[in-house]
Structures are given as C-alpha cells and as structure tokens.
Design brief:
The chain is an all-alpha fold and 235 residues long. It contains eight helices and no strands.
C-alpha cells in the first residue's frame, strides 16, 4: 500500500503497544448486499451476531487492514472476523459493563464512550451507514469497492471527514472498529482471532506465561525465540 495510506506495518506497529498487554484477558436496516462465499462459509461455522451483509463488511475490513504477506496470513485466515463476531454477540457487545442510563450529551475524547448505543448496536448501525455512504460515493457497498476506494474511505473515516446520514458518529465507529481488529490480532486464540498465535509470534510475545521481562536486555534488538502458550494450552 502507499506509504501515507493504511500501511500494514504501521497498523501492526501501533497495535503492538496495547495488543500484547490485552492478549491474555477476556474480550469479551440498510443497503442489501449479496453474501460472499467467504461469508457463507463463516456463517456456516457459526456467526453469532453478524448477518450476511455485516459479515461481508467485516471480512473485507479485516482483510484490507491485515492483508496476507510475509508477516502473517490475511485477517480472515487469522480469524479476526470470528473474534469480532463473538465479541459483538457477548457481554462486551451487549454493553454489560457500560453505563447506559444517560443523559446522552456530546462529550470530549477524555470522557470516553458517550453514546446510547451498545457496542453491538454501534457496529450494526455503523456498518449500515458505511455501506450507504459507499453506495452513494462509489456505487457499491464497502465489500464490493476496489482496494483503492476502500482505503480512501477508511482514511477519511479515521480522519473524521465522513459524516454518516442517519447513522452514529463516524469517528466513534472507526475507533471501535480499529480497537476490535487490534484485539483480534493479539488476544488469546481461544477467543477466535490470533489463529495459530500468529500475532504473538509476530511480536515475540510468549503468551500467558509472560516472562519477557527476564530477557529484555539479552534479546534487545534481536528476535526472541519463543513458542507462545495460550490459555487452551494450559488446560
């Protein structure tokens, strides 16, 4: 991808800081789109929240943000779409730990999440609004546009230059989407993402037995030879 665009390495580098720290914790009607073969396959595996249109959006999103290269497989092969679906279907998506009683006023970034929507509702409404915007701008839904158009849209979304018609605040939607992609990349594989511990291997993270601090000086600026251990490996 172009250097000033949604660069793969820049994404992974920025994700490492928060991703590894969270790697062992529990994470917890619109334009019509035809389901892709990948969506149908994932649904058969058991999408618990995403409908076919939403599944197509998420799959296109994670494959664009984490494309296959010499570092890791693409996002869907890493299970990032499965991680996001499970998160949306679970307690996090339902807003179990959010205060949802209002009042609902526009806040400042330091105040955190300020919407009357649960994360699952934000995702659903945001995907619908994003597809409406893409159809209006590019004549196709997000999963059907070209890679260049997809990148243009995501960069505008990130910069707050997109205004959703009858949708949630676009920048809040992007922030939540970006967060879940990062979490899926580095969370414990038992939650659906980070398949084969690829994210951990990428950054030399040992997993639940986190003893990197003992080797900081020994392996400074050198690859850390590690075979990551997940929660399932301990049972």
């Amino acid at each position: 991808m172009k250097k000033d665009g949604f660069d793969r390495r820049a994404f992974l580098k920025s994700a490492v800081a928060g991703g590894a720290a969270a790697a062992t914790v529990s994470v917890p009607q619109s334009v019509q789109a035809q389901p892709t073969a990948a969506t149908a396959a994932a649904t058969a595996q058991g999408y618990a929240f995403l409908n076919p249109e939403e599944g197509a959006f998420v799959e296109a999103l994670v494959d664009h943000m984490v494309p296959a290269d010499e570092l890791t497989p693409k996002g869907t092969d890493l299970g990032l779409n499965i991680f996001i679906d499970r998160s949306l279907a679970g307690g996090w998506g339902k807003g179990d730990r959010l205060y949802m009683q209002g009042p609902w006023k526009t806040g400042v970034p330091s105040q955190g999440y300020q919407l009357p929507l649960t994360p699952a509702e934000l995702y659903r409404n945001g995907i619908a609004a994003a597809n409406v915007h893409c159809v209006k701008t590019y004549k196709k839904t997000f999963d059907k546009v070209t890679a260049a158009e997809r990148e243009e849209f995501l960069l505008a979304l990130q910069a707050g230059k997109v205004t959703f018609e009858n949708g949630p605040p676009s920048r809040t939607f992007f922030t939540t989407v970006y967060q879940t992609v990062m979490e899926g990349m580095f969370a414990d594989p038992m939650y659906g993402g980070n398949r084969n511990k690829a994210g951990w291997k990428l950054i030399g993270f040992p997993g639940v037995i986190a003893v990197n601090y003992q080797n900081i000086e020994k392996y400074r600026d050198k690859p850390f030879p590690v075979n990551p251990v997940g929660i399932a490996d301990m049972s």
